[in-house]
């Protein structure tokens, strides 16, 4: 350290070193400029310049002509994509299996090596795999602790430290719920509107319900407590446990499995099903011919593979969070106009 340096300047330098070492920055990220350091710590421009020069000489920073200082360090390298999915994806009719199948086909099409890792909350991420998480978002904090990138598919990244290391692609669930309600308003004129919601603690379900209620604030909401057909089927009687006439109501179901449960219940009970709008555009919606809010699955998978190719190629730039829009897909819906 140069002779005669004040304690204040020495402390500032240590703060800068600590910031670099904390993992806040990734290798290749731009660091503070001379002017920014001078303004932030109330020191002269020349003192800030000397501090950056020392950090460069000591190996903490590099410098690019006309670009300023950047954080040095080696990028973590990956040998393949790791598809971290829950055991439920082994059930062929599950949402996880549907998405996993699409993703595997696309990875094979671009000749990108990959490995499926059946996952639970005790799973530890493998160092040589770039982790793509499908319904396993609870692994996110491991990315921060290991300083490695990962990808969250069809789920919003948790705020805070883990989001520094996780790329993601997901949909605007609130907008999708709003669109479902607006479709009902546009094409139907009925006595009542019902909502069959997913798990109460699932942010996707909550956002879809909130979007729908923004148009129909008096709609009755019943939670199935699940996303899955078998469990949802037991809750359908509660949905119809009112004086509402089924043929004079419409039901927004927060995913297609819930919608299929309503249709099967009505069929087994010998009653005509109400107007139904699902969410997701899973194969069951086409099989049973009901309308749904379609998730752009192919685009979602394409964005995921693009990121996998980039990260496996050594891209160390800041993470990206991509929000895609849904689109109503009308099937068998009687039109008012």
Automatic annotation (TrEMBL):
Superkingdom of the organism of origin: Bacteria
Example of a GO MF term: transcription cis-regulatory region binding
InterPro entries for this protein: Peripla_BP_I (IPR028082), SBP_2_dom (IPR025997), Tscrpt_reg_HTH_GntR (IPR000524), WH-like_DNA-bd_sf (IPR036388), WH_DNA-bd_sf (IPR036390)
Pfam family, one: GntR
Residue stretches making up the HTH gntR-type domain: 6-74
UniProt key word Repressor: yes
Entry keywords, A to Z: DNA-binding, Repressor, Transcription, Transcription regulation
Protein name: Regulatory protein GntR HTH
Organism field: Sediminispirochaeta smaragdinae (strain DSM 11293 / JCM 15392 / SEBR 4228) (Spirochaeta smaragdinae)
């Amino acid at each position: 350290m140069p002779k005669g340096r004040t304690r204040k300047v020495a402390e500032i330098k240590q703060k800068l070193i600590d910031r670099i070492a904390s993992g806040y920055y990734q290798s290749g990220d731009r660091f503070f400029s001379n002017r920014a350091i001078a303004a932030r710590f109330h020191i002269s421009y020349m003192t800030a310049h000397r501090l950056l020069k020392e950090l460069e000489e000591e190996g903490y920073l590099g410098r690019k002509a006309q670009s300023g200082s950047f954080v040095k360090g080696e990028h973590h390298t990956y040998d393949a994509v790791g598809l971290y999915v829950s055991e439920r994806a082994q059930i062929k009719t599950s949402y996880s299996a549907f998405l996993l199948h699409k993703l595997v086909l696309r990875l094979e099409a671009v000749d990108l090596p990959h490995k499926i890792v059946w996952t639970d909350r005790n799973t530890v991420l493998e160092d040589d795999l770039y982790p793509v998480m499908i319904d396993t978002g609870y692994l996110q904090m491991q990315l921060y602790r290991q300083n490695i990138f990962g990808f969250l598919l069809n789920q919003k990244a948790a705020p805070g430290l883990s989001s520094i290391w996780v790329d993601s692609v997901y949909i605007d669930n609130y907008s999708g719920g709003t669109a479902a309600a607006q479709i009902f308003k546009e094409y139907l004129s009925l006595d009542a509107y019902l909502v069959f919601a997913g798990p109460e603690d699932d942010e996707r379900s909550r956002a879809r319900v909130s979007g729908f209620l923004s148009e129909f604030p008096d709609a009755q909401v019943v939670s199935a407590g699940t996303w899955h057909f078998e469990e949802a089927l037991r809750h359908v009687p509660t949905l119809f446990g009112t004086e509402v006439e089924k043929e004079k109501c419409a039901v927004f179901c927060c995913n297609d499995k819930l919608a299929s449960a309503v249709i099967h219940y009505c069929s087994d009970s010998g009653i005509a099903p109400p107007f139904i709008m699902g969410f997701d555009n899973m194969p069951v919606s086409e099989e049973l011919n009901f309308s749904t809010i379609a998730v752009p699955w192919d685009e979602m998978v394409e964005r995921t593979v693009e990121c996998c190719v980039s990260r496996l190629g050594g891209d160390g730039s800041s993470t990206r969070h991509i929000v895609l829009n849904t689109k109503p897909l009308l099937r068998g819906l009687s039109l008012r106009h």
